[in-house]
Amino acid sequence: MNLSEMTWPAVAALDKRTPVIIPVAALEQHGHHLPVFTDSLLMGEIVRRASERLGDQVLVAPLTWLGNSHHHLDFAGTLSASPRTYLDLLAGLAENFLTHGFKRIVFLNGHGGNDVPGKQALFEVRQRERQRTDLLLAFATYWHLVERPWESVPGSHQREMGHACEWETSMILRLAPHLVVPGHEKLAPVPFGNAFSPAFRAWITRERTEPGHIGDPHLATAAKGEALFRVFTQGVVDLLERVIRWDGVSWNG
Predict the structure, then answer these.
(1) Least confident of 54-63, 196-205, 231-240
(2) 161 — pLDDT class (breaks 50, 70, 90)
(3) What is the pLDDT of residues 115-159, one digit of tens each?
(4) How many whole angstroms separate alpha carbon 197 and alpha carbon 191?
(5) Coil, helix or strand at residue 238
(6) Residue 20: beta bridge partners?
(7) Which residues pair with 27 in a beta bridge?
(8) Exposure on the CB side of residue 44, measured as CA atoms within 13 A
(9) Vertex 20 angle, CA 16 and 21, to 5°
(10) Nearest partner of 113 among 160, 76, 148, 163, judged by Cα
(11) What's domain 3-245's architecture?
(12) Which of 118, 109, 55 is nearest to 85 (CA)?
């Protein structure tokens, strides 16, 4: 069910155990060859595929395209909410649905920069609702929902999500090839690199890449993109089916 197509009485009549899916992504630079709306396009397609399979078992909110992308602001076209503003935005969205009586809220994320503020937002909401025992508040980034996704993608070189990389470029080639600037096959790879691992080093994008991509866009194909859409959609469906099955009380479901 798409929230944007429903009347308010229809929403009010829903079983409040119905999981609410809130897709979140970004509008930010994606190198010299992909559109700034890449994350939102990909997240939207994965949610579309997942919701087609789940039908009336879930309620899907419109995608929130503004993300926390301050680390990309050195590149033209990037739009971003500051971390605290973004955190409050997501917390407010969750609390809106709580006000309407819903109890199972899942943020599905398509941009790495949203991960930390998104989790913190739900952590804070849960503390404000600490007396309740009937809530399931979850935040999930789609490429983290599948272990070893590359095993389902013949010829895949990358072993993690990059930025405007083999994976994202492949999916845009499958979804909207007209938006890919010709010549991605000639782009030089930009290594992921983290000399201070396993520590987390705070970073801005221009420290890591001059052209804007990180990874191997030259290896992208539309066939890999379709395989990636399938495996990531399955990961989302598996998660949402677990949310649907949750008994409403226990920690593990």
Answers:
(1) 196-205
(2) very high
(3) 999 999 999 999 999 999 999 999 999 999 999 999 999 999 999
(4) 14
(5) helix
(6) 59, 105
(7) 79
(8) 14
(9) 170
(10) 163
(11) 3-Layer(aba) Sandwich (3.40)
(12) 118
